[in-house]
Design brief:
Number of domains: 1
InterPro entries: ChsH2_C, ChsH2_Znr, NA-bd_OB-fold, Thioester_dehydratase-like
Strand content: 25-35%
Pfam family, one: OB_ChsH2_C
Protein name: Zn-ribbon domain-containing OB-fold protein
Order of helices and strands: HHEEEEEEEE
Mean pLDDT: 80
Structural class: mainly beta
Length: about 180
């Protein structure tokens, strides 16, 4: 066990936790504070994720950290029913996903707080973080959950129930499975 390794992490190997280095430390520190960071290239202006020390589009090393909005849309997903690596086995089934961040980059992640049958390509998601609440001393990991729409944002309109505007094929997902209304395809 290395110095500073939490005892729980050393006793049972965990395959869902990052191993930060000096370069990625700002990313993981921000995640621990509930903020998602991306990298943006000053030379070509494009954002990218996963964090790299150079731009994957123009190869410039003039890249900086910037806060992301945390908003995303679901690009694709797969429901994982079996995974023997700790702690995934205790989480199955879970939704492994790729999301399009509002800033442009695609990101591999997990969708939480939603039944798989309610997922729709293009549905709105927002970032939340998992990890620090499970075991003290571990990095928080960004995961995504469906948007929570309220009031005038509710497709049924202000003062109406969240389901008031739902009709098959009108662009709203099967909201009941997520406990909220989320944009659909």
């Amino acid at each position: 066990m290395s110095p500073g390794t939490p005892p729980d992490r050393a006793a049972v190997p965990r395959f869902d936790l990052p191993e930060p280095d000096a370069f990625t430390r700002p990313y993981w520190d921000a995640a621990g504070e509930g903020r998602l960071l991306i990298r943006r290239c000053a030379a070509c202006g494009r954002a990218h994720h996963y964090p790299r020390e150079f731009c994957p589009y123009c190869w410039s090393e003039d890249v900086e950290w910037e806060p992301a909005s945390g908003d995303a849309t679901l690009y694709t997903w797969s429901v994982v029913h079996r995974n023997d690596l700790p702690p995934f086995g205790s989480r199955v089934p879970y939704v492994a996903a790729v999301v399009d961040l509002a800033e442009g980059p695609r990101m591999m992640t997990e969708v939480v707080e939603c039944e798989p049958a309610a997922l729709r390509v293009g549905m709105g998601l927002t970032v939340t973080f998992r990890g620090a609440e499970e075991v003290e001393g571990v990095e928080a990991v960004p995961v995504f959950r469906p948007l929570r729409l309220t009031g005038s944002e509710t497709p049924g309109g202000a003062g109406k129930s969240p389901g008031a505007g739902f009709r098959p094929g009108n662009g709203l997902s099967a909201f009941a499975a997520c406990g909220r209304v989320a944009p659909g395809p």
